[in-house]
Amino acid sequence: MTLMENATFPNAESCTNVGADPVLMGQARSSLGRATDLLVSMQEPSGFWCGELEGDSILQSEYILLKFIVELENDPRLPKIANFLRRQQRLSDGAWIQYPGGKPDLSATVKAYFALKLMGDSMDAPHMKKARELILKLGGAECCNTYSKFYLAALGQMHYDSVPVIPPEVVLLPKWFYFHLDKVSAWSRTMIMPLAVVSSYRPVRQLPAPRGIMELYANHDYPHRPFCEFDKQLLSWRNLFLAIDKGLKLWERTNLKPLRRAALQRIEEWILKRSDGQHSDGLGAIFPPMVYIIIALRCLGYPMGDERVKEAERQLDRLMIEEGDCIRIQPCFSPIWDTGIAAYALSEANFNQENESLRQAIQWLIGKECRDFGDWKANVRNPVEPSGWYFEFNNSYYPDVDDTAMVTMALLRSGCPEGKPSAARGIEWILAMQNEDGGWAAFDRTINRPILEYIPFADHNAIQDPSCPDITGRTLECLGHFGFRPDHPAVQNALRFLEFEQEPEGCWFGRWGVNYIYGTWQVVCGLRTVGLDMSLPWVQKAGAWLKNIQKEDGSFGESADSYEDPAVKGQGPSTASQTSWGVMALMAIYGPNDPGVQRGVRYLLDTQLESGSWDEPWFTGTGFPRVFYLRYHLYRLYFPIMCLGRYLQLNR
User: Fold this and answer.
1) 437: DSSP letter
2) Residue 587: its pLDDT value, please?
3) Residues 418 and 561 placed together within one structural domain of the fold
4) 282 close to 290: Cβ distance less than 8 angstroms
5) Is 639 in a helix, a strand, or coil?
6) pTM of the complete model
């Protein structure tokens, strides 16, 4: 029997409708109609959706710093970018923050202060004074993270020996070596490669003293001499790696680098190949490496007029959104993610292949299937045909499991026959990407190597891409729609992983969405779709946690604070997207007419705007936990559609 012959098609799920509230169902149908009308109206003519993807202030500040590093500070757009950067400052304490309601972020505040000072803001201006006082209170600019220190060193505000070294020779390490580029996360790979060039060349743009930020250092000697603070505990992994880093810096001062030229040449070939405009929207198609590659290419001798440098600039500039006197910058585009979720949500709302909007979306997604081998191939042992979907418009070297699972579900649930071959290939690719621990990661088949987290340049908290519960749960949901059940070996391994990863309270961590509500929703919906007995004690424990955190008005909400403090799991301002996740999770465990489900549905109905959407100012997406968060502007629309559609389908 083929995968497609064994597949579960739309409306195949069943659930008792005893206790259904006809009034609530009627209101839900009306609400769902308004929401789907709005979503369809937002679809691009070629069939995709791409909502704004909002990050924090570092996008604006790092772009300004980049322009000064490469001596292009006369860019006429910079004043508008600076205007938006000023608006992002929190006036109460002078901080720039990672997400609304978050604590002050030292690195973000230092970079914003520096960028605005370069743009002409006086250090005596009230907003600058307040930021400076906060920075010094938090320990000073010397306490910034590694990736911020690269900017400070490149602009002469810090000695490069205070920045962790990334020797280009890492690209030549053998596969068996514990640290190998195939063993780090895909996004770290795209950052490490250009930064290794910067680390080798150590470019410095000297600024006049009045434009510098010496006033931001608590230790005034720090900018002028190398400094590295070891742990008080002598024997630690961090101290070992810091000692190695110190040794590498001593080595950098010598002429004993016979492999340097070969390493730089290989890196140059690597980054040029992966930033080819035909295959990628810039290196990695995400903001940080798209910035770093411009500096790296300049180090390698490429003039700003070179077509490859200009292409890197164009790809970066496409991320800008101009409104009035402000320009804000997105970290990347999210069309395949948005389109996959939107199409899946519409299928839950009873749209099918006869609907033109859904059919256009499916056709567009089919055309975006990866049919070439990417970096993922390095760690896949079993032969598998290239497939998968990425996140952005073009990023063929980096398809990911999460997008692939969502798209293949959308292809199947739409009922469009032309999507069956792509969906079948996608499933085979997903199966080949399963890790040995039974879970799935985002971009690669990997093994967790926790020691790597102690590498000095790994303080972005994401040097690895290990298996995570949320992607594993979504993958099970995908496999369940294709007829996979608990007796399948891949499902059995995933179930063991999820049971092991369950938190003591009964929830699951959310790596790619905020946070335990997201992870728990993904997992329990996956468990139900593969046909697991939802009365099992560990599943019921998840249900009890969901009921415990649901608010009286039926809503759910969780702040990204829970990444810092697990004591606030499942707590935070109510949002439409998180309420939808929580309600769908309750439905998966208890059915559509559980009182908690009904209260959650009522909350969505009561808070819907006249436009058909919902108001959601909070960040519910995650980039790097504890480092970078996201606000997907379509989350507030297509997740409530998915929730309401599922509620009505289960009550049919």
Assistant:
1) T
2) 97
3) yes
4) yes
5) helix
6) 0.94
Burial class (CB in 10 A: 0-12, 13-18, 19+), 485: middle
Number of residues written out for the chain: 652
Q: Which runs of consecutive H residues, i.e. helices, occur in 144-211? A: 146-154, 186-201
Terminal-to-terminal C-alpha distance of the chain: 30
Burial of 605 (0-12, 13-18, 19+ CB in 10 A): middle
Q: Which of 161, 338, 400, 402 is flagged as catalytic?
A: 402
* Residue 579 exposure: Cα atoms within 13 Å on the Cβ side: 31
pLDDT digits (tens, 9 = 90+) for 190-210: 999 999 999 999 999 999 999
The Cβ of residue 566 has, within 10 Å, a number of other Cβ atoms equal to 15
Which string of DSSP letters, residue by residue, matches 278-335? TTBSSGGGSHHHHHHHHHHHHHTT--TTSHHHHHHHHHHHTTEEEETTEEEE-S---H
User: Is the domain of 93 the same as that of 196?
Assistant: yes
The residues that bridge with 400 in the sheet, in sequence order, are 389
* DSSP 8-state class, residue 102: P
> Tokens 């060349």 sit at which residue?
201
pLDDT, mean of residues 136-144: 96
Residue 551 corresponds to which tokens in the numbers above? 């608010």
- Percent of the chain whose predicted confidence (pLDDT) is above 90: 84
Q: Which domain holds residue 383?
A: 22-53+333-650
Beta bridge partners of 323: 326
Using a 10 angstrom Cβ sphere, with 0-12 exposed, 13-18 middle and 19 or more buried, the burial of residue 324 is exposed
Residues 292 and 376 grouped into a single domain: no
Same structural domain, 445 and 304: no
Active site residue 402: yes
pLDDT in tens, 549-597: 999 999 999 999 999 999 999 999 999 999 999 999 999 999 999 999 9
d(CA 645, CA 631) in angstroms, rounded, equals: 23
Asked whether residue 110 is domain-assigned, the answer is yes
For the segment 578-588, what is each residue's pLDDT rounded down to a tens digit? 999 999 999 99
Asked, for residue 5, whether it belongs to a domain, the answer is no
**257 shares a domain with 173:** yes
Residue 464 amino acid letter: Q
- CB-based contact 391:350 (threshold 8 Å): no
Instruction: Say what the pLDDT of residue 278 is.
Output: 77
